Amino acid sequence: HQFFIFFRKIRSQDKEVTNVFMGPLVSAEHLEKVRHYVDLAVKEGATIECFSGGYFLQPTIITGLQDSSPVNREEIFGPVVVMSPFSSMEEVVQRANDVDYGLCAVVFTKDINLAHRTAGALEVGTVWVNSWLVRDLTMPFGGMKKSGLGREGLLHSMETFTEEKTHCIQLSH
């Protein structure tokens, strides 16, 4: 319930407007891609909780989809969250890991032991607990499976974008 209240308060407008939490998507093409997933969810019988039109995509909560839906299985990269009921954390981990992607995950819980167990079991590059997008640029960031090509973050970026090479030169005989 609190998540829905928070989501409805998020403002999405032009960057020239003050007090904006979220700006536009990167391009018109990307906006259409994200809207495609929202439309697909509706066709598959989902309930759209917060979607509204306009050039700026408002934060959108989708409920009522099957795990097999592409909306649940692909990376959308837009202000869209799919919520599904579950019976246990083991079920959550199994369902989360049963996709081809693994960029990041968020776990909300008051039980720190459960948070550690769940974070360790999720096949993703980053797990946030009781937060989202808290990041230090020196920390590694990147996904697992088909999400990303290695790690970003100071030293990790240097390793990703460079190739070590050794030169051994004898200067005199």
Automatic annotation (TrEMBL):
Molecular function in Gene Ontology:
oxidoreductase activity, acting on the aldehyde or oxo group of donors, NAD or NADP as acceptor
One Pfam assignment: Aldedh
Q: Which UniProt keywords apply?
A: NAD
Checking InterPro entries in the record gives: Ald_DH/histidinol_DH (IPR016161), Ald_DH_C (IPR016163), Ald_DH_N (IPR016162), Aldehyde_DH_dom (IPR015590)
Task: Indicate the segments forming the Aldehyde dehydrogenase domain, all copies.
Answer: 8-166
Its family remark reads:
Belongs to the aldehyde dehydrogenase family.
**Protein name as annotated:** Aldehyde dehydrogenase family 8 member A1like
Protein species of origin = Caligus rogercresseyi
